[in-house]
TrEMBL record:
GO molecular function, one term: acyltransferase activity, transferring groups other than amino-acyl groups
Highest taxon in the source lineage: Bacteria
Protein name (record): GNAT family N-acetyltransferase
Entry keywords, A to Z: Transferase
Stretches assigned to the N-acetyltransferase domain: 9-176
Pfam families assigned to the protein according to its UniProt record, in alphabetical order: Acetyltransf_3 (PF13302)
Gene3D superfamilies, alphabetized: 3.40.630.30
Species classification: Bacteria, Bacillati, Bacillota, Bacilli, Bacillales
PROSITE patterns reported for this sequence: GNAT
Length: 177
């Protein structure tokens, strides 16, 4: 099922054929440099099962993304129900992860803008958050480009205290009436 289209992207349901490139993307040390670790193939299978569960529970989730021109799977963009312990959770988070070959083309911004529009107009979300390691400048730039506003820094409770990734930045956008 196709959920959303942009001029260059299709955001859709996950297919069986997405699993191997998804596993490869999550095992790529460069793609995962702002996460505590890469994901094993088994971890990615569990992650995908969780994505599908969120679709069943909420009617939205992290959409598989493919290029319109080639039908190539390039990652995910979409919504996630964040539940770790913080004063802004539980909340709807918007996030993205793309293969290295897709970087630098504006795909994350293009897809995330469309997701926000869909989330506010069709899903009737009132607010959406995004967060990342403070040193993840590319994702912070996407957050700014899609209209999100800086809220504050926080120490991510699921990241080791001695990790350079623990210091996170929080962004938010509310529904525009």
């Amino acid at each position: 099922m196709i959920y959303l289209e942009t001029p260059r992207l299709i955001l859709r349901s996950w297919k069986e054929s997405d699993l191997l490139p998804f596993q490869e993307m999550n095992a790529d040390t460069e793609v995962m440099r702002y996460f505590p670790d890469t994901l094993s193939y088994e971890d990615t299978e569990r992650f995908l099962a969780n994505i599908k569960t969120e679709f069943n529970n909420f009617g939205y989730g992290l959409y598989a993304v493919e290029l319109k021109a080639t039908q190539e799977f390039i990652g995910f963009i979409g919504f996630h129900w964040a539940t770790f312990e913080e004063n802004f959770t539980p909340c709807v988070e918007i996030g993205w992860r793309l293969t290295q070959g897709a970087w630098g083309n504006g795909y994350a911004t293009e897809g995330a803008k469309t997701c926000l529009q869909y989330g506010f107009q069709e899903l009737d979300l009132s607010e959406v958050y995004s967060f990342t390691a403070d040193i993840n400048y590319p994702s912070k730039r996407v957050m700014q480009k899609i209209g999100m506003k800086y809220v504050r820094h926080f120490a991510h409770p699921k990241v080791d205290t001695d990790s350079p990734l623990q210091k996170h930045v929080l962004y938010r956008i509310g529904k525009i009436e």
